[in-house]
Design brief:
The complex is a heterotrimer of chains A (338), B (299) and C (235). Chain A is an all-alpha fold. Helices cover 73% and strands 3% of the residues of chain A. Chain A has 14 helices and four strands. Chain C is built from ten helices and ten strands. In chain C, the strands form two sheets. In chain C, strands 6-7-8-3-9-10 form a six-stranded mixed β-sheet, sandwiched between helices. A four-stranded antiparallel β-sheet of chain C has the order 2-1-4-5, covered by helices on one side. The chains are: A mainly alpha (338), B mainly alpha (299), C alpha/beta (235).
């Protein structure tokens, strides 16, 4: 086995092991664990969306945290200021973020890969400032925290127990279930979408725009559609995040969030749906695992960055691709007659 | 009027820092076609190294010079080890790689140096006192930073346009295959580009630390965006454009914030979004920027 | 006469695709040798194999030194100038800068090289600041040739110089190549689809088919050869 192949297998194995350990070790099913599990679900949904626009359609977005912010703030303002029931705000957040995604997707048509990366990067860095802008106070509280805790529109007001299907669970547990239920639904939607004509169109756009056009694919429509739907996913993720932690403020959606999402989608393997689970686990639980190495600040980032670099160099198709490659000889042997 | 002049001068100084970082970005882009998202974090990291040297008793200017060498070597090493394997590959891959560097170096800076308060010794690199010219207080530091940046631009111009190695650098960026056939070691040219850019970035970092103490691991993040804006406005392939773009942005942001009192738009805290807006508008309307070259080819 | 360039049993591939199968040929000092063949025969790949631009195995020797998997830079340093398909000029740079780059490996004597080259292409001086990409096809080809000459090479590799050019321009180009060979003793390996011109300008030739040497011999004889005439000369 060549050295590169061996390195690939090793990295895949380590990544999978890390993800498994993280998922089973970290959440101890107390309130903190519930929230962490919910956050992983939030990342999962956001990564599904990012994968659609970057992995499948090939448009780099370094600013998806901004769409999470749009969705998150939609929920926050509706719940805190307008008394809308939190559950109903989830699809609304998705819609609003989706529209924002469309609005970004239109000018994005004219920006090639590198320029798009630049612009979305700028969006991610500038978002906290935009959220703090006094002129947007009615929509963002101008940078001051939007507090949901205790508001009647929040299920259980954020601290009371909730009853689901006759069972009584803590608020945090309910949030955990809610997030993963939504995640499952969105996974199925994504799967159906990508399996059908839109998915093929996305991939055609990514692989060769010239070929796609001559096959009759409306590039512009599919590119903006990809942006819109991925933004909607991110918006829903943001909304669930805000519900889980019961507040929103500009620092909850910093530039780092967008970059962390990128790490997640690359670790997962661009263009792979179920790799996204490993990616979400990786970005959610890495900081906890890193604490064992050193309590210093900056350790998780160092590992995130190193992971990104390593994967690009050694395992470009991420965990999912690595697994596929590692297992292919096995399945080939099983299903072919020598 | 006095305030206008002062805002312009201080805008030119902060603009010089954006210009310096933008220069680094343009050099790497011209020589490798890659936008190095990690340019700012590389600058931060090397500035912290400088601080560590000074902290251990090395004089400021020797430390400055040594840091430039270290930065140069670091840039060359990064290109040869980390970037080379993916050069010529898809844009997305390289973007992800430099983002990875961005994240990792940022984490390393935080990890190694933690978030303590640090500054360079006072009056370094330039005295912080001011000259009084016609009622306008002009900071010697601002002038010094502007002067060094302009000198740097001149040096680079001479290097690229009037030396053999500068020509080889340009050629390697434009047509690597033909460059090889002419005998140019293209790989090392690319590494040289990264080394130069890293050294220039280090200068930007040192100036940032001087202009807005204390030293902070996140100090170059906004500067990076302003530098991107400068590079884009000036034209990603134009060093002159990068510098003019930087100065323009520095002055504009200052003036906008100052005269915002008439507009009541609270724009002082919206500098980053404004820079982002500038990037977006230029890329949509005139991607080559003011001085960038839209390639002319005879079919 | 020792062979300046020797290929012995050379295979070349692009990834999984093998394009050359055991190609053997040689170019002596001061010789002009032509390589003919149809599209996809492997002519361009043969030149690339010499320059180290394609994955190669077998024996490639220049002036006795083995260069089978040497990098293009190294091959250039040994005195081989390759004018690739599509000319390989720097379109965004000026004519003069292109020539300067041609002389990249020369330590000194740029002035002499420049004078010499100007002798063959006098118009270069008047257009020295013009952007190379704005030259006509024929002018670009001549610039590419001039650039190769600036390196003072011992062997010139010419890839399909006639591609996309008007016949009269092509004739002029080949006249210059022959003159260079006669006056300066420059060895030339030229790959051409225009068989008539190539055979007239060379002393020996090889015919490649599907990556193999199908025929070889003195150009005059090949020009009379029945199958060559039918396949490549049209009569």
């Amino acid at each position: 086995m060549s050295r590169l192949a061996a390195a690939r297998v090793a990295v895949t194995a380590i990544a999978l092991a890390a993800a498994t350990v993280a998922v089973f070790l970290a959440p101890r099913w107390d309130k903190v664990g519930d929230i962490k599990g919910a956050q992983m679900g939030v990342y999962f949904i956001a990564l599904l969306g990012l994968n659609i626009v970057t992995g499948y359609t090939g448009q780099i977005s370094l600013g998806h945290g901004a769409f999470m912010a749009v969705g998150g703030y939609t929920t926050a303002i509706l719940v805190a200021d307008h008394g809308v029931r939190d559950l109903w705000t989830i699809p609304i957040a998705g819609l609003v973020a989706g529209i924002a995604g469309f609005l970004v997707g239109v000018p994005a048509l004219r920006l090639s890969g590198l320029y798009l990366a630049l612009v979305t990067f700028g969006l991610a860095v500038a978002m906290p400032d935009i959220l703090s802008w006094d002129k947007l106070e009615r929509v963002t509280h101008g940078g001051k925290e939007v507090q949901l805790f205790g508001k009647p529109a929040l299920t259980g007001k954020g601290f009371a127990d909730v009853s689901i299907l006759g069972q009584t669970v803590t608020f945090t547990r309910a949030v955990h279930y809610l997030t993963w239920a939504v995640a499952l639904v969105l996974l199925v939607v994504a799967w159906l979408l990508l399996r059908g004509p839109p998915g093929r169109a996305f991939r055609a756009v990514r692989d060769s725009e010239v070929a796609a056009t001559s096959s009759g694919v409306n590039i512009a429509a599919y590119k903006t559609f990809a942006f819109a739907i991925s933004a909607a996913y991110a918006g829903i993720a943001g909304s669930l995040l805000v519900i889980a932690v019961a507040f929103a403020d500009p620092q909850a959606f910093p530039a780092k969030l967008s970059l962390t999402l990128l790490v997640g989608v690359v670790v997962a393997g661009l263009g792979s749906l179920w790799g996204v689970l490993a990616g979400a686990a990786f970005i959610e639980f890495l900081p906890d695992a890193a604490v064992h190495v050193s309590k210093a600040q900056g350790v998780p980032d160092t590992v995130y960055g190193a992971a990104l670099i390593l994967i690009v160099l050694v395992l470009p198709t991420g965990v999912a691709g690595g697994l596929r490659r590692a297992l292919t000889p096995l399945t080939t042997r099983l299903y072919t007659r020598s | 009027m006095v305030q206008f002049a002062q805002q312009v001068v201080s805008g030119l100084a902060s603009g010089s820092i954006y210009a310096a970082l933008a220069l680094a970005i343009v050099i790497i882009y011209r020589s490798t076609g890659v936008v190095n998202f990690a340019q700012g974090e590389m600058a931060t990291f090397t500035t912290f190294i400088a601080w560590t040297l000074v902290d251990h008793g090395v004089g400021y200017w020797p430390a400055f010079a040594l840091t430039l060498l270290i930065a140069f070597a670091g840039g060359v090493a990064l290109e040869r080890i980390v970037v080379r394997p993916v050069e010529g590959g898809p844009v997305l891959t390289i973007v992800i790689l430099t983002i990875g560097l961005f994240i990792m170096l940022g984490g390393l800076s935080n990890w190694i140096w933690k978030a303590e308060v640090r500054s360079f010794p006072p009056n370094r690199p330039f005295p912080t006192s001011t000259w009084d010219i016609g009622g306008v207080a002009i900071s010697k530091q601002d002038v010094g930073i502007l002067g060094v940046t302009l000198g740097l631009v001149l040096l680079l111009y001479l290097l690229f346009q009037h030396t053999k190695i500068g020509l080889a650098l340009r050629a390697s960026a434009l047509n690597p295959a033909a460059s090889r056939l002419v005998g140019i070691r293209v790989g090392w040219m690319l590494a040289l580009g990264w080394g130069l850019a890293a050294a220039i970035g280090a200068i930007a970092g040192m100036f940032t630390a001087a202009a807005s103490p204390p030293l902070d691991p996140n100090m170059m993040r906004p500067v990076l965006i302003y530098a991107f804006a400068a590079a884009v406005v000036g034209g990603l392939t134009s060093p002159v454009g990068a510098v003019l773009g930087g100065l323009t942005i520095g002055v504009s942001l200052n003036l906008i914030a100052t005269y915002d009192s008439h507009l009541h738009l609270d724009l002082d805290r919206m500098r980053l979004p404004i820079a982002l807006g500038a990037i977006l508008i230029v890329l949509l309307v005139r991607p080559a920027g003011l001085f960038g070259r839209a390639a002319v080819r005879r079919v | 006469m020792a062979a300046l360039l020797e290929l012995g049993g050379v295979d070349a591939n692009y990834g999984q695709l093998q394009v050359l199968h055991g190609v053997s040929l040689s170019v002596g000092e001061g010789e002009v040798v032509a390589v003919l063949g149809g599209n996809g025969a492997g002519k361009t790949t043969t030149l690339r194999a010499v320059s180290g631009m394609v994955s190669t195995s077998g024996d490639v020797r220049f002036a006795g030194e083995r260069i089978t998997r040497a990098s293009p830079e190294r091959v250039a340093r040994l005195g081989v100038a390759h004018v690739p398909e599509g000319r390989g000029i720097f379109s965004e740079l000026s004519v003069f800068e292109n020539l300067q780059l041609g002389a990249y490996l020369r330590r000194d004597g740029f002035g002499e090289d420049y004078e010499r080259v100007r002798g063959y292409f006098p118009w270069l001086e008047t257009r020295r600041d013009q952007q190379a990409g704005t030259l006509s096809g024929g002018e670009q080809q001549m610039l590419a040739l001039a650039r190769a000459l600036m390196a003072g090479p011992r062997l010139l590799l010419l890839d399909e110089p006639s591609l996309g050019l008007a016949p009269i321009v092509v004739r002029g180009l080949f006249e210059i190549v022959v003159e260079l060979n006669e006056k300066e003793g420059l060895a030339v390996l030229v790959v051409e689809q225009n068989a008539k011109l190539a055979l007239r300008s060379s002393s020996r030739a090889y015919v490649l088919e599907v990556g193999r040497v199908a025929l070889e011999g003195p150009s005059a004889e090949l020009a009379e050869n029945e199958s060559v005439r039918k396949a490549y000369l049209g009569y």
